[in-house]
């Protein structure tokens, strides 16, 4: 490494940035390798194209700094750049990361509110379905009673012991509504209740399916492989997980 001059290392890194083989993570990794690479990896000639490519909206901020950048490039062989563009990149990177974090939080809250709404609808459908089932039970009980009364009205004309005939007459006298008319209305009401229950069951299946989809979406949004693997490990392995997490390129923090 000491054999190659600074101009050669600088040109190698510039070619890497131009060909998209080097990004901000690689530059940060190089900057912690040695003091020399830290100084070279912090120059504006490397961070300026990265800032323009990763954050195109920063071009307006760079227009006022072009003169300073040209002057720094002219004498970069004699002195290190001031790291202005690396600082700008860090600021934009942190803003973009915060924006993504807030967007992720909004997405999580949206899915959680959707799950709460699905649960509320499921409870409401269950309540309505239970009410219809109670109505069905009462209708069936009344229908069976009316059918017994109709059978009793027919059996009155047939010879039976006097005690049985007296009970049948008592059942007929207690009913003031025409039996056939009431039976027909109850049968219609029973069919309507069954249709309502079938509709509630269908709506319940749809809501449960949507609830499961929302839960799966929430799990995929909040999933983090390192956190999930660390939760299933012992306290000794958690330290290893944390050390591996620090070695991942995606967790490299920008250093100034």
Major β-sheet annotation: none
Tell me the radius of gyration.
40 Å
Distance between the termini: 23 Å
How many DSSP helices?
A: 11
How much helical structure, as a percent, in the residues? over 70%
Quaternary state of this entry equals single chain
Order of helices and strands: HHHHHHHHHHH
| Overall mean pLDDT | 75
Judging from the principal axes of the Cα atoms, what is the shape? rod-shaped
* SSE class: mainly alpha
Give the DSSP E fraction (strand runs of 2 or more residues). under 5%
Which ranges are low-confidence, i.e. pLDDT below 50, for 5 or more consecutive residues?
67-81, 227-256
Q: List how many beta strands DSSP finds.
A: 0
Task: Name a few traits of the molecule.
mainly alpha; single chain; 256 residues
């Amino acid at each position: 490494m000491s054999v190659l001059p600074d101009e050669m290392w600088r040109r190698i890194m510039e070619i890497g940035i131009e060909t998209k083989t080097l990004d901000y993570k690689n530059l940060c990794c190089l900057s912690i390798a040695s003091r020399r690479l830290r100084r070279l990896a912090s120059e504006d000639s490397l961070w300026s194209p990265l800032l323009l490519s990763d954050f195109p909206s920063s071009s307006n901020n760079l227009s006022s700094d072009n003169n300073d950048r040209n002057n720094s490039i002219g004498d970069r062989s004699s002195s290190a750049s001031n790291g202005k563009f690396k600082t700008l990149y860090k600021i934009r990177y942190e803003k973009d990361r915060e924006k993504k974090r807030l967007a992720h939080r909004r997405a999580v809250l949206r899915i959680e509110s959707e799950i709460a709404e699905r649960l509320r609808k499921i409870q409401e459908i269950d309540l309505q379905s239970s009410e219809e089932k109670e109505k069905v039970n009462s209708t069936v009980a009344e229908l069976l009673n009316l059918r017994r009364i109709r059978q009793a009205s027919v059996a009155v004309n047939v010879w039976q012991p006097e005690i049985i005939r007296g009970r049948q007459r008592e059942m007929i006298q207690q009913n003031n509504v025409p039996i056939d008319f009431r039976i027909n209305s109850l049968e219609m009401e029973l069919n309507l209740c069954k249709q309502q229950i079938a509709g509630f069951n269908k709506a319940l299946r749809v809501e449960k399916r949507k609830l499961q989809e929302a839960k799966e979406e929430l799990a995929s949004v909040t999933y983090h492989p390192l956190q999930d693997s660390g939760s299933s490990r012992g306290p000794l392995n958690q330290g290893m997980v944390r050390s591996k997490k620090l070695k991942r390129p995606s967790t490299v923090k920008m250093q100034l």
